[in-house]
Amino acid sequence: MNGLSGKLPSEISECESLETLGLAQNQLVGSIPKELQKLQNLTNLILWQNSFSGELPPEIGNISSLELIALHQNSLIGDVPKELGRLPRLKRLYMYTNQLNGTIPPELGNCTNAIEIDLSENHLIGIIPKELGQISNLTLLHLFENNLQGHIPKELGNLRLLKNLDLSLNNLTGRIPLEFQNLKLMEDLQLFDNQLEGVIPPHLGAFRNLTILDISSNNLVD
């Protein structure tokens, strides 16, 4: 951890050859400059554990070279910008432990090369977009501790490489999708503290790699 403080100057966008911008674990404040969109060679945006506030500029979606967005442990608000769906190379999106209070855009399903998405510990509302089921390379999806509603999309059963799924501590209703039987590589499945109902799918017992299963505090029956 360093002790850098103040705002992130927009002039840093003049470093047009920059491939990694790493300013994590500092005391930076204010908004993330939209001028960062000028960094067309940027692969890694690493700003986690600061005190950034405001909304993430949608212009970040213009940095088509981005593979890693690590903005967790800040004070960002608003939506997850739908413009992030324009990032074809994005592999990891970490925006957990912020104050995000908007929705998860269906456009995020266009990030078909993504491996890990973590939007947990925010105040996100609305539904889980079925389009997330298009991200066929996804191994980790964390959306826990938000205010998400509606059913768990059956399309998540298309994520055959998924190993870690945590949707706990939301307001999800309906049944655990039967399509989850396709998730043969699942190691950690946590759906606790929702309002799920119906029977516990018997195929959950067939996940040979499963080490953590927590579906407590729901309305499930045997």
Automatic annotation (TrEMBL):
- What GO cellular component is one of the record's annotations? membrane
Q: Does the keyword Glycosyltransferase apply?
A: no
Question: Any idea which UniProt keywords this protein has?
Answer: Glycoprotein, Kinase, Leucine-rich repeat, Membrane, Receptor, Repeat, Signal, Transferase
Localization, per the record, is:
Membrane
Q: Please name the GO terms that the record assigns under molecular function.
A: kinase activity; receptor serine/threonine kinase binding
Primary place of residence?
A: membrane
Q: Does the keyword Kinase apply?
A: yes
Spell out the protein name for this chain.
Answer: Leucine-rich repeat receptor-like serine/threonine-protein kinase
- Origin species: Trifolium medium
